């Protein structure tokens, strides 16, 4: 069996994620993580089946020897070579020390192997854990992960594969500045910005600027922005915004002839795709002061 599994690993172009092989009773232990696949003698648990690049992931594979004699075993979790970082960290929780317990240095395979010289005694099990991280180059979307191996020989798995999702995120940082309009115009000119701090490209989104309560209208709106007079809000659409890129929208708000005092406006990212992981930079405020509607400072 061991030679056949090695042949599969060499030709598969896959990366194994993590493994645990369990312990000292015929009754399999309670699973701490999510059970993602199992065969007759092996279970595979995952700390998560969705994560961002750079996030830590742990796979636990449990191989139970319920035969009448000591046994060797192979167990592995395999995915495409760009999904997980190599070599990972192996922790043997219980049972004999495996012959191999790692994600291969070539980035092609990771298994927990108990070969000649490593025997799982009858009525016990071997438990090991490999912790790795989602690779920075892992493509967003769903990847297929394949469990393999077994006690003595290859065993059928249920399911035969399971999905692992690399989450796509784009951190949008919002900015807002204000300057008085031309002298005696009674206007404030706002510049609203949205910067994509990545890592992914945005595909859609909206930034809404709420104008001062004493604003009466807006001029100079870009085509992808709209104004709602009842709520005094300017909504600007975000479309494809690459990592590191900034979009800028400039428009002017007209103040009421009787406007006085503090004039505050706030810009907020209300929606965006993919998910924004850092909401702390989603809002910006700009404040001006009106001595009269024609005398404004910012």
- What does the average pLDDT come to? 83
Which CATH first-tier class of the largest domain would you pick?
Mainly Beta
Kindly report how far apart the N and C termini lie: 76 Å
Amount of beta strand: over 45%
**What is the fold-level CATH name, i.e. the topology of the largest domain?**
Immunoglobulin-like
**Largest sheet at a glance?**
7 strands, mixed
Helix content: under 10%
Q: For the CA atoms, what is the radius of gyration?
A: 29 Å
The number of distinct β-strands equals: 22
> Helical region count?
1
> Structural class of the secondary elements?
mainly beta
- Second-tier CATH architecture of the largest domain: Sandwich
Report the order of strands and helices: HEEEEEEEEEEEEEEEEEEEEEE
Give the number of domains.
Answer: 2
Flag low-confidence runs. Answer: 1-31, 105-109
Protein name: Putative repeat protein (TIGR01451 family)
InterPro entries: DUF11_rpt (IPR047589), OmcB-like_DUF11 (IPR001434)
Organism: Actinokineospora cianjurensis
